[in-house]
Amino acid sequence: MRFVIACGVVAVLALTACTGKGGKAAQTGNTAGSQHRGGTLYINTFRAYTHLDPQQNYYGDAISFESRTLVRTLTTFPAIEGSNSTDVVPDAATDTGTRSVDAKTWTFTIRPDVKWQDGKPVTCQDFKYGISRTFATDIINQGPTYALDYLDVPHDANGQALYNGPYKKSGQAGFDKSIDCPSPNKIVFHLRHPVADFNQTVTLPAFAAVRQDKDTGAKYDSSVFSDGPYMIQGKWDPVRGGTLVRNPNWVASSDDVDKAYPDQIVTTFGETADTIYQKLESDNGTAKNTVTTTTAPPAAVPTVLSPAMQSRTESVTDGYIHYLSVNVQKVPQKQVRQAIAMAVDRTAYVTAWGGSALGSPTNSLISPLLKAYTRYDPFGVGDKGDPVKAKAVLQAAGIKLPYPITYQYPKDLTQDKLATTIKSELQNAGFSVTLDGLNADNYYDIVANPRQTAQVVWARWASDWPSGSTVIPPLLDGRVNISAESLGNDYAAYNDPLTNKAIDTALSLTDSAAQQQAWSAIDQQVVKDGVIIPMMADKALYLYGSNVEGFMLNAAFGGYVDLAVAAVQ
Amino acid sequence: MLRRVIAIVIMLFAISIVTFLLFFAIPRDPARLTCGKVCTPQLIAQNRHTLGYDRSVATQYRAFLKGLVVSRDFPDDPQLKRTHPELITHCRAPCLGYSPSQQTTVNNVMGRAAPVTLSLILGGFVLWIVFGVGLGVLSAVRRGKIADKVVLGVSLIGYSFPTFFVGLILYNIVSVKYGLLPEPQYVSPMHDPLGWAAGMLAPWITLALAYLALYIRLTRATMLDTMSQDYIRTARAKGLPAYRVTFKHGLRASLTPILTIAALDIAGLLGAAAITETVFNLNGIGQTVIAAVKDADLPIIVVGVLISAAAVVVLNLVVDLLYGVIDPKVRYS
User: Fold this and answer.
1) Spatial separation of the C-alpha atoms in residues A463 and A201, rounded to whole Å
2) Is residue A324 part of a domain?
3) Do B38 and A485 touch (CB under 8 A)?
4) Residue A104 included in any domain
5) Closest approach of chain A CAs to the CA of B269, in angstroms?
6) Residue A335: which CATH number?
7) Per-residue pLDDT tens for A424-448?
8) What angle do CA A480, A481, A485 make, to 5 degrees?
């Protein structure tokens, strides 16, 4: 009898081990290796990957795509889930770099087996040339501009780099000194100021190598020369995309992260999100081998979350933080700003946004994915807020009620719902709220315009790499954002000398842990001041085809599907 | 005739000028849009200069006109052309401009998009005229009977739904979910005529449904009116077969008002075609121009508007000439 039971137990255990859900199997990361080699993976997504030129690429989905296919960087993020996913690992380099004590000099050794698609090795000169293209701002003007600020190139009195790129070469000597190539596979960066997280900065394709003899300037998007596991077949169309095939000169053992399972990757761009998700749900034909980087539209969410689709669904906190920005010039009294912060209900926001599959309440401008994140409750009202307490604060400060507030947001159905809930919460706290829903296409033009922006505006932000240094300074340093015509990304018009000093100090810290703590301190300061009201950490929700294996979402790369480990049956 | 052609040319110039003026009158900064995530004022100014938007509207318009007869280089930098010719895009005359969002000449963009839109419009037009007139005749001939009521009722349903709604239903539900229509896509009719027709079927139906009801009713009403005329009674009395009476005598007389309305509807057709292209992701002129408006890509917008205007005008001219064919009383001397 016991023998029979024992056999039964073994059989059941064996069965559950074999039928684990396809998506979850990838949680052990790229060591799982149950994926098949070969076949064609289709990417069907709405927004085109227009700029594959690494120095022009500034969109998360396109960066995630090309970082795993065409462009190797010195370091990258691993294809794993969990809290270690934001720790850099080597890609084209042998390790994650060595730095001087003052974090102004960074040295990397390039692996000798990293090769271009014509078999030539990738050298320090190639990296140097690629990075120099960022300085040609008359031709290369869409991508991240960190190189302009970080590299020790002579600058003029206004802080502009005195180098205009490798095409016109004015100031070339100054640039050449900022990056040394002591040997073809050793690269030394000389930075203008300490950058404690520079080995995260170089994960950006903007710091990738480009072959000078293959460069075509503004046209390079259509013919990127690859050093990754795939290469472009023919030409890449900025509107329609194209096909990637295997790069015959990519050495698999040179790459610890990328497995490159599919033989081909084919893209389709431009279909509406509803159509994409209808095709994925119906799961016919090529849809079985399809993934998307378009998150599920509201109409499709109930179906995507239904039990029938569960084995083909994934969601992840994607790094975007939704927040309300309160303009310190239009709302100069701190208590009023704090009352707004106290009155809003983050849990209601998440519900109106679409529920817990699409977001979670948050208290910080810094994403929970980042090491700089801290959980705190500045006003003691928790996530739900407390309009009564907010009203008491206003009355105690002698503010005349109702206090008129205008709230601007980009208009669509979901945002209208959010605005309505925010309005009622604020009105319960003694505000009179005017809603101003703006056209989504020129929303940021208006909210960045000092004359047109409202007291409270909706905004969202994601870091460029998982560090507070790409959250706090871009949003809160008034010196780089504010001009007569524009507030830049600082919709609050916040330009506090003490905060600016704290930002400068944080940037100069060479200890990464200490630096992240410094960012957190500034974050807590502005949240306590009611300047920034963090609302929600966004989650992306995706459906994928039934033949897709090893599907995982990489939070460090914007929460998109990680092509390093994706495969098809 | 010559007067008419001259008038058309003048009108196209006027439209192009208005488009330029309107583009710069809107409160958006096109240079800021092409700037990316971290947009310093210097970068915006640089963009503006690269795109040519920092020059006066008159200068930009002159450059556009010049390009129609003289070839242009983008970027227009002689020093760069000497040192790095591989960076320059050469646009042979007639050059319609350079699209920053698509990184190629507008000639290339429109060259690829035009056959798609042409396929869509012609197919849709044929469908709605054939079925509109055909079903209208059926309705008129079977007036009051079941066929008449069914045709009128169903056509009204199709007419009352907006184009994008019909398109989404046909694509997502009818084609993807139930597989009852072939996958909508554009393939060149030169390479694969059957594939072309199959791929365009859902878009054609979408476009045609927008106008079908009107033409059914119009044909029906005009036919009923015509068929009650005395000369029709005479034709019948003379013993002519019914189909001859209906088509040669009845329908032919009814065609004039139908064609008049068709000429007017062609302008709206381009708008409906743009929506259809976007829903079915066909990358035609309409979808391209809509995307260009979003991206503030002036060169595409200008040429797109001009093509639409030219199409409306030319098609109207064609219809007017057709009048001369069907109605001998109206002929161009």
Assistant:
1) 11
2) yes
3) no
4) no
5) 22
6) 3.10.105.10
7) 999 999 999 999 999 887 788 899 9
8) 125
